[in-house]
Amino acid sequence: MTVTEDFDFEAAVKAALNEALRERGHVNVLIAGRTGVGKSTLINSVFQGSFATTGQGRPVTQNTREIKKEGVPLSIFDTRGLEMADFSETLGALKSFVSERSKSPDSNQHVHVAWICIAEDFRRVEPAEEELVKMLVDRNIPVIVVITKARSDKGFRATILEILPEVTNAVRVRAIQEELDDDIVLPPKGLHELVELTMQVVPEGRKRAFTAAQKVDIELKKTQSHTIVAGSAISAAGTAAVPIPFSDAIVIVPIQIGMLAGISATFGLPVDKSFLSTLVGSILAGAGGTLAGRSIVSGLLKMIPGAGSVAGGAIAATTAAALTTAIGETYIAVLVMLFVSKDGEPPTSDEVAEAFKSKYLQLATSR
Fold first, then answer.
1. Does the domain formed by 25-213 have CATH 3.40.50.300?
2. pLDDT (tens digit, 9 = 90+) per residue, 97-147?
3. How far is residue 134's CA from residue 202's CA, in Å, rounded to a whole number?
């Protein structure tokens, strides 16, 4: 296929967005617990953007509401009322809700994992919690007990696992730092373990969505993004298996746009046209400020030692793969830096674009 100097940027961005969103998917987490166990604090500590506070809530049963937030591939089903005398009514409604969703042919409707929250101070497992766990496990939903407000175990975790042997595991969590008398400070605890345990049991097709939504483990986002880069490099190499004319090298750019969209989705950034256009525009500006194929590739090739001299010649598979890898790994490094500086919260599109452009120019001019 011959590629002209004209490049349909809009079409490339649209295709990249659709693929990134399809690959990322959506994950549904049911979180249940008695009043006062700290569910909202837990949700806000694990997921991006103060999810429990800023998300849009709607009732799905009398005591369960679905919390969603635009741009975040996550639904939280927040169940309350387990301490009520008539909890059987709450449980019955929840059973119908879960069963209906489990029967749906659309797996996006399923409950993919459940967190049952029990405060360590309570020191007991209520009949409602036992019945809820059994109901969920009977429907093949993995259950993790989250022991909230963890300060002193005194064998409580072992007791929970004895009473609830069906659960995947139980993890002691302190969602936020606590300051006690006598200048005693208790740091957050157990959040990484909770994320790790959840990743082990959430269905394979939901792992990327959970990775994107959580803010605790940035290394998890990084690891999954490396996989995207490796796959994109292989695709770019395949495109250039027969060396392609330099002027036609624009054919690898859609692969790279798709890679950037996939990495963005994995980090939980807003995967929309505005964001991706801003991001790609930051590279194009460094490559000469035009969408012409020759100028894009000429600028990008500066990132690869010795590759800048191929103008007028051809680009081989190794060069296409190296170029794609350099762009992807640079983007990952920039995102890790930004996310760490913001305690796991996503940076703005302008912050990402500016940092990426700066890093790209730094690499290009150093060659």
1. yes
2. 999 999 999 999 999 999 999 999 989 999 889 999 999 999 999 999 999
3. 18
